[in-house]
Amino acid sequence: MGKYYEKKNWPSFPDDMAADLIEWSLSSERAIPASKKEPFSMLTAPWSLRQWVVENIPIDLSDEWVVTIQRFDTDYAHFHTDTIRKWSYNCLLHGEGAVTRWKKDMEGDVVETVKYDANRWYFHNSAVPHSVSEIPKQRTAVTIYKIEPEVVGTHLATAFKFLEAHSKDPYFYYV
User: Fold this and answer.
1) At 160, is the secondary structure helix, strand, or coil?
2) How far apart are the C-alpha atoms of 153 and 126, rounded to whole Å?
3) Nearest to 70 by CA among 55, 82, 78
4) Contact status, residue 100 vs residue 168, Cβ threshold 8 Å
5) 3-state class of 35 per DSSP?
6) What's the distance, Cα to Cα, between the start and end of the chain in Å?
7) Across-strand partners of 71?
8) CA-to-CA distance for 172 and 175, rounded, in angstroms?
9) Adjacent-strand bridge partners of 89
10) Is the C or the N end of the chain the one with fewer CB within 10 Å?
11) Tens digit of pLDDT for each residue in 94-120?
12) Which domains does the chain have, with CATH numbers?
């Protein structure tokens, strides 16, 4: 795996499915409602998304794995580390052109930069401080990751509520 990111040679979504996922991702509800407007959301997702991933992506998925859609509703996400995951596999749906940057530590200089291509899969290291800028209003991606409850990042928001709901029903966010 790359230290910060790595392009994966995995199948892209078929055009019709990608279009449906983009439409879904721009209007779907948060999986865990927030008391205030949050710039980042894990969304509800169609069950067909998980089915497609199981059939097409070379990962042995178990109940500990999340396959959903994430959305930024902002033009900038400050440097942060993620909560409940150290890394993910992401496939950008909408918001191409945004820039992801990594630092070795929060006070350090930027050490890596990438613009993810639409409908391509990437390994993304979210345990290292990273930011996203130049987001064209909204940015959505399918995200696949294994829940790691002990990981506490710099931005908590509703992550622990997501973890709690997931522990009761690992498929609670599918509709």
Assistant:
1) helix
2) 9
3) 82
4) no
5) coil
6) 32
7) 41, 140
8) 8
9) 123, 144
10) N
11) 999 999 999 999 999 999 999 999 999
12) 5-168 (2.60.120.10)
Instruction: Give pTM, 2 decimals.
Output: 0.92
**What is the rounded distance in angstroms from the CA atom of residue 101 to the CA atom of residue 71?**
18
pLDDT greater than 70 at residue 155? no
- What angle do the packed helices 15-27 and 47-56 form, to 10 degrees? 140
Q: Of 9, 30, 19, 20, which Cα lies nearest the Cα of 172?
A: 30
Q: Which residues pair with 110 in a beta bridge?
A: 103
Beta-carbon contacts of 129 under 8 Å, excluding residues fewer than 6 positions away, are 79, 80, 81, 102, 103, 104, 105, 106, 108, 154
Q: How far is residue 19's CA from residue 90's CA, in Å, rounded to a whole number?
A: 17
Q: How many angstroms separate the CA atoms of 148 and 86, rounded?
A: 7
Q: What tokens does 155 get?
A: 């931005």
CA torsion, ordered 120, 78, 69, 165, to nearest 10 deg: 140
Q: Evaluate whether 138 touches 73 at the Cβ level (below 8 Å).
A: yes
How many CB atoms neighbour CB 159 within 10 A? Answer: 20
State pLDDT tens for residues 27-71: 998 887 766 677 777 899 999 999 999 999 999 999 999 999 999
Burial of 141 (0-12, 13-18, 19+ CB in 10 A): buried
Question: Cα(79)–Cα(97) distance, rounded to whole angstroms?
Answer: 18
At 37, list the tokens. Answer: 């407007």
